[in-house]
Every structure is written in structure tokens, then in C-alpha cells.
Design goal:
The chain is mostly helical. Helix content is 75%, strand content 5%. It has 5 helices and 2 strands, in the order αβαααβα.
Length: 118
């Protein structure tokens, strides 16, 4: 159930980003659902390898280079997903930033709250 909720919230996040970021286009909700799956698969494969290879740069930039990698993954997903398009690196970077903030909010809402052990 949690996976399904995250999938739908990710699709909604893509639609919101498409609404606010010029150059970031999603045709509709079904395209957003498909794009969310494709982005997840790309991040789990190509993104994982890139994050390992660029770990030293990520450390030097205090993690900000991960936004560049996520932007590249969004551009790749836009190239292979019908109904989802990212035009240019600027749109991908701003989209990656907004999506990162949105997913942080989703995790904060959906993760169980742990009480500190006294």
C-alpha cells in the first residue's frame, strides 16, 4: 500500500513540477504515472552507478552534485518516456530540486514517527 501511495504522490509531484517549471512537460496523469516508474527504474540502475562513480565530487560539493545527477536522470527519463519531456538542463535541474523537496515532504508525512528512547 505504501509503494502505491508513493507512486501516486510521485506522479502528482511530476504534474506539479510541469505546472511550475518551463520546459518540463507531462501530458497527463497516466503519463505522469508511467514517468514516475521510469524515473524510479533509471535512478535504481544508471543513477545508482553514477552516484557511486561521482561520490568524491558529491563529498566535495556537500551533496549538491546529486542534484546534477538527478537532473541528468530526469533528462534521460524524458528522452525514453512518451508523454514526458524535459527541455534543457535548466528545466531538469529546477525540476530535480523541486522533486527532491517534494519527496522529502512525502517521506516526512508517510514515515512513521519514532519516539525517542529514554
Amino acid at each position: 500500500m505504501k509503494l502505491l501511495l508513493n507512486w501516486v504522490l510521485s506522479a502528482i509531484a511530476l504534474l506539479l513540477v510541469a505546472h511550475f517549471v518551463p520546459g518540463f512537460y507531462v501530458r497527463g496523469f497516466w503519463s505522469a504515472l508511467i514517468a514516475a516508474v521510469v524515473i524510479g527504474l533509471i535512478n535504481a540502475t544508471v543513477g545508482f552507478v553514477l552516484k557511486i562513480l561521482t561520490f568524491p565530487i558529491t563529498i566535495l560539493t556537500f551533496g549538491l552534485f546529486l542534484l546534477v545527477i538527478n537532473a541528468l536522470m530526469l533528462e534521460l527519463a524524458g528522452a525514453v518516456t512518451p508523454g514526458f519531456e524535459v527541455q534543457g538542463f535548466r528545466a531538469a535541474f529546477v525540476g530535480a530540486l523541486i522533486l527532491a523537496l517534494w519527496h522529502m515532504l512525502i517521506r516526512w508525512i508517510t514515515e512513521p514517527k519514532h519516539e525517542p528512547v529514554a
